[in-house]
Automatic annotation (TrEMBL):
InterPro entries in UniProt: 6-PGluconate_DH-like_C_sf (IPR008927), NAD(P)-bd_dom_sf (IPR036291), PDH_C (IPR046825), PDH_N (IPR046826), Preph/Arog_dehydrog (IPR050812), Prephen_DH (IPR003099)
Gene Ontology biological process: tyrosine biosynthetic process
Protein's name according to its UniProt entry: Prephenate dehydrogenase/chorismate mutase/prephenate dehydrogenase
Pfam families hit by this protein: PDH_C, PDH_N
Keywords assigned: Oxidoreductase
GO molecular function, one term: NAD+ binding
Organism: Desulfosoma caldarium
């Protein structure tokens, strides 16, 4: 919601930016974002010359880029330091907790959720979710203009709508991916060895599992455990998963197929679109992997040519070569 308070006089043409948590991956990304657009940026983090309070006192706009599970407490601690006429932004993956922490704060507040990670090179076409808290027209217009000129796709919604949708965008996919990874561990399946049997879609799914486990466990725990709507969503997940497991375990073909067809009808034309898009993605993914596998094939042939013939030797050589280049 935009406001126009009596103590808000004007908004600077070139506001000074401060980033709390500016040495983290996302903090560095947004440091680049602002500096590329000509802004003066100050940062605070562990070990920096400037403290959080220094950054707040020097800046017109303060971006809080801290771990999700600590964000609300940090915002509550800093809230008394923020001043009228100052714009505070956060980039947490959930929006209701930080918005609540900023209730009653003298500064303006807008919650942001960049739907991309610190590895992007270009912001054009990336999605930015914007959840207005309380903000005056001028800083709001400045922020929207900045994001639009960067080529970001902007979606404006309430914090409540955001967090409910994140149960579908993040919570359920993350939880099911974590469970898949745990299953492979419990079954003693070596990821590299499984690639000897892979289909293109399994390879892509395995990459997504590996990608998740390559990142911060605390972040994924916080996204799942701090979502205000987690209980109702997990109940649906538990029920549907149980029904599906029961159909598979007891060979209930009709129940499985009926549920499958109902979900296909629910998705409608998106199923055809998704099939087309993933076919293109899988083709690209397969070509990329084939480039790496060519070297593995050459290494395997060289190894086999120098190995005395036996029943097990070719298999052993192939295993070693594939593990080395998986």
């Amino acid at each position: 919601m935009t406001e126009n308070p009596s103590d808000f006089k004007s908004w600077p043409k070139h506001p000074r930016i401060g980033i709390i948590g500016g040495l983290g991956a996302m903090g560095k990304l947004f440091h680049r974002f602002f500096t590329e657009r000509g802004a003066t940026v100050a940062v605070s983090d562990v070990g920096t010359p400037l403290s959080n309070h220094d950054v707040i006192d020097q800046s017109h706009v303060v971006l809080v880029s801290v771990p999700l599970h600590r964000a609300s407490n940090i915002l509550q601690d800093l809230a008394p330091r923020f001043r009228p006429g100052q714009l505070v932004l956060d980039i947490c993956s959930l929006k209701m907790p930080p918005q609540k922490a900023m209730e009653g704060c003298a500064a303006w507040y807008v919650g942001l959720h960049p739907m991309y990670g610190p590895y992007v090179e270009d912001f054009v076409g990336q999605t930015m979710i914007v959840c207005p808290g309380h903000v005056a027209p001028q800083p709001w217009q400045w922020l929207m203009s900045l994001l639009e000129k960067a080529g970001l796709k902007i979606h404006i919604c309430s914090a409540q709508e955001h967090d409910r949708m994140m149960t579908v965008i993040q919570l359920i996919p993350h939880v099911t991916t974590v469970v898949l990874g745990h299953c492979l561990r419990e079954m003693g399946i070596d990821a590299a060895e499984s690639l000897r049997f892979t289909s293109p879609i399994y390879r892509l799914e395995l990459d997504l599992i590996g990608r998740l486990f390559a990142q911060d466990a605390a972040l994924y725990a916080a996204i799942a455990m701090e979502n205000p709507y987690k209980s109702e969503v997990l109940e649906v997940l538990r029920r549907v998963f149980g029904e599906t497991m029961d159909a598979v375990e007891h060979g209930r073909w009709q129940a499985f197929i009926q549920a499958f067809e109902q979900t296909r009808a629910h998705f409608g034309e998106f199923c055809t679109q998704a099939l087309h898009e993933t076919n293109q993605l899988l083709t690209w993914h397969q070509n990329a992997n084939n480039h790496g596998n060519q070297k593995a094939s050459v290494d395997n042939k060289a190894k086999l040519s120098s190995t005395p013939f036996s029943y097990n030797a070719p298999l052993q050589g192939a295993q070693e070569g594939e593990k080395a280049h998986a």
